[in-house]
Structures are given as C-alpha cells and as structure tokens.
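task queued by scheduler; priority normal; single chain, no ligands, no partner chains; default sampling; output format set to structure tokens
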Amino acid sequence: MVDFQYKDAYGVKDLEEIVRILRAPGGCPWDAEQTHQSIRRNFLEEAYEAVEAIDEENPDHLREELGDVLLQIVLHARMEQEAGRFDLDGVADGICKKLIFRHPHVFGEVEVSGTGEVLSNWEALKRQEKGQATHTDALASVARSLPALWRAEKVQKKAKKAGFDWPDAAGALDKLSEEIRELRQAVADGTNVTEELGDLLFSAVNAARFLKADPEDALNAATDKFIRRFQQVEAQAAQAGRAMEDMTLAELDKLWENAKRT
C-alpha cells in the first residue's frame, strides 16, 4: 500500500502526485514503462473525445474528457521532470509568459480597435516569438501532426497573409475543376495518381475556405450522410429478402437513389 491521502475532492497537485506514484518504483508497471512516443496517440484520441463532448454540449461528459486530456499533459510533464528538464510548473510558466506577451492590449500599453486588430497583432507577435523571418517559415511551422485537411487550411490561410490567394471563390472552384481533369489524366496515364489526388484534395480545402466551410466538418457530415443512406439501402435489400453483397451494382444504385429521395 502506498502512502497516499484520500480526499473528498482532489486538485491538479493531487493529480501530479498520483501520476508520480504510478510511475515510481512500487507503482504501476504499465505507467512506469510509458514514454512520450508510446502514449502519443492517446493524447490525440483524448483530445478528439473532448471535442466530441463539446459537440454534444454535455458538461458532465466534457468535464470527464478534459480530465483525460489533463492526465496526458501531467504524464508528459512528469516524464520530463524525471529526466530533469522541466515540470508541470514549467509548462504553466511557459504558457503564462506566452499569453502575457501576446496580449499587450491587456497586459501592456497597446490599444486595439477590435478583434481583427487583436488577431493581426497576435500573428505578428507569434512570428516574432518563434523567429519566423519569412512567410515560408510561417507555413512550415504548421504542425504536420494536424489532420491533413486542417493542416492544408492553415497553410492556405498563412499564404493568404502574403497575398498569395485567389481573389474570390470562382478562382478556387476553377482550380478544383482543373485538378479533377489532371487527376483523370493521371489515372489514364497510370502516373502521378497519388500526387494529383493530393492536389485535388488541397484544392477542395481551398474551395471550402472560400465558402467558409470547415473541411473536416464538411467531410464528417458527408460521411454521416453516407452511413444513413447505406443503412436505408441495406434495409431496403433486407425487405426484398436480398443480401447487399448478392445484388448487382445497378440494383444497389437504384436502392441508393431511393434512399436519396427519403
């Protein structure tokens, strides 16, 4: 039995202590074996689950999922503390200093006219803070670990700040049509198919940006719609005493069109 004080309510410092105990000799063998890399995916999954709780507008679920995210932060900070590099207070110190530096209109003498100027100043301060001397530096700084659609969108937004952008949605849609033609040609030629497909997806994200649509949300909505219609097709096939896999593509397409009308 470890030396631990049980309470009716716990705080962040208690979470730090629990993680320390779990990773210490005599604690949990699994926790002690973990590294930044081994739980990297856990961090991503917990963040996505927290976002799902936000979408559900469920405070109890959100509190739980934020706790799971916080655990990941404390675990990673603990690993660094064990290595003698930094601890959770060091993490807090860094983000506090960043927030103070990037809000001179709150913590300094800078005056702003509104949100637009706040965001403009934030971007300029961020580039100064990270030593980004060129626009390319800013583009390259967008994390590769982001979902590909979001990464593409962020890169495009940063390129826009350099004036590298279509004047309106028409240009983005024309480029999307051009990329479809180039993909068809690549398929016909049997070369550069993956590259051209990537160009098409990148152009689709660009079009979404002009249409003020989140590409991740749009694709998720399309996937949900596909599942709903697929369910209807399967139900129609079952009513006819047929299994989908035993039906022809023409028959399935007919059921799909029926599903689209409902």
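post-processing summary
- DSSP finds 13 helices and no strands in the chain.
- The first helix runs from residue 12 to 23.
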